[in-house]
Amino acid sequence: MAQLPLTSLLLETDAPDMPLAGYQGQPNRPERAAEVFQVLCQLRPESADDIAGQLQQNSQSLFALDPPLLL
Fold first, then answer.
1. 13, 34 in Cβ contact below 8 A?
2. N or C: which end of the chain has fewer CB within 10 A?
3. Alpha helices in 1-71 (DSSP H)
């Protein structure tokens, strides 16, 4: 994730059988995407705001969302 172009990244929460570290034995939950985002921010040189903005643009583009998502 640190080396991929930011324009190629999305965050997802649809892997209930792949819990985050510390949550073994529990299903994954959508609200844990914030924890994944925090780790992504530690790995990337861009600011958290820039990463969030690009992730939103990537999601809008992939899923053809109109109007844009509100964060």
1. no
2. C
3. 33-43, 48-63
How far apart CA 31 and CA 57 sit, in angstroms, is: 20
Could you report the per-residue pLDDT of 5-60, keeping only the tens digit for each? 999 999 887 677 777 888 888 888 888 889 999 999 999 999 999 999 999 999 98
- Please enumerate in sequence order all residues whose Cβ is within 8 A of that of 59, keeping only pairs 6 or more positions apart, or say none: 10, 65, 69
37, 51 in Cβ contact below 8 A? yes
Contacts of 28 (CB under 8 A, 6+ apart): 13, 15, 16, 17, 18, 19, 20
Residue with tokens 């929460």: 13
